[in-house]
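Q: Predict the assembly, please.
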Amino acid sequence: MYRIGELAKAFEIKSDTLRFYEKQGLLAPSSRSSSGYRMYTEQDKQTLSFILRAKAVGFSLADIKSLLSIEVDKANSVCADVKALVNAKLTDIEVKMAELTRFHISLQRLADACCGSAKSAEHCTVLEALESDVDQVRHEHHH
Amino acid sequence: MYRIGELAKAFEIKSDTLRFYEKQGLLAPSSRSSSGYRMYTEQDKQTLSFILRAKAVGFSLADIKSLLSIEVDKANSVCADVKALVNAKLTDIEVKMAELTRFHISLQRLADACCGSAKSAEHCTVLEALESDVDQVRHEHHH
DNA sequence: ATAAACCTTGGATATAGGTCTAAGGTCAAG
DNA sequence: CTTGACCTTAGACCTATATCCAAGGTTTAT
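A: Predicted assembly structure:
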């Protein structure tokens, strides 16, 4: 069992953030101590880990809540519903990854065009990388 | 040359957003009409495309500004500086992609464990997927 | 030549996601 | 048995990223 400050420290967030997540319906401590302190279990800790990882990959707290609600409602959920929700999130992730890949290619092209030495950056600009990218997009559209 | 509303419509954003980006130092129109209208060039349009793509992959406006500043300062920049900045952003992207991949694997495991039929979701919960994930992480740490 | 649809500026409002403050209760160490 | 680190609540405040509004000037279509 962890007190709020311990759990916060373990994940390098503020206690306030945990209280905020609780108010948002994302993560409530499994119990309270006799003096009213929030007491978090190992499972709560895992849920928090999930929340933070999901946030890190760009999901909103609302998205995360909907994923976690599977857990809360599991007796009332049916597999098909769960699967549909999860598959939707998987598609979101795939879209994000495709965008990241495209952006990575653009920046990589910029880095490659760049001399890397102490000469002027006259010919290594974001705009030049973008221009080639636009060309590439046009090219793709042609077939 | 595009007027603000034309450019906004082309990217499905509001004119307000373009004025906002200008105030933030991200994108100023290349010129103004005699009556003071913002006039955007093809290059401005490309810069906007860059801004929106960068935003879509999770960069903040501040991050994007630092990338664009390469362009503005290019006469005063040296390739090495540009390359270092771009490489830092490339690393950011690689980290994001690794996180997305890991998250995708977790959710995929959940979807796979899920029957997909109209039975109770008793055994397809985010937490169960997480538990296996934690095990996997522990496993990785062991070698 | 006038309405619709633009544009201008400056400032108010909104939403997400926290972060901090005030006023006070609890707990472990010296 | 007090000091300092923790905890409680309610609510104010903050940053990022827009979006909207007011009051007025300009352009385009009819």
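Chain B is about 65% helix and 5% strand. Chain B touches chain A through 58 residues (CB under 8 Å).
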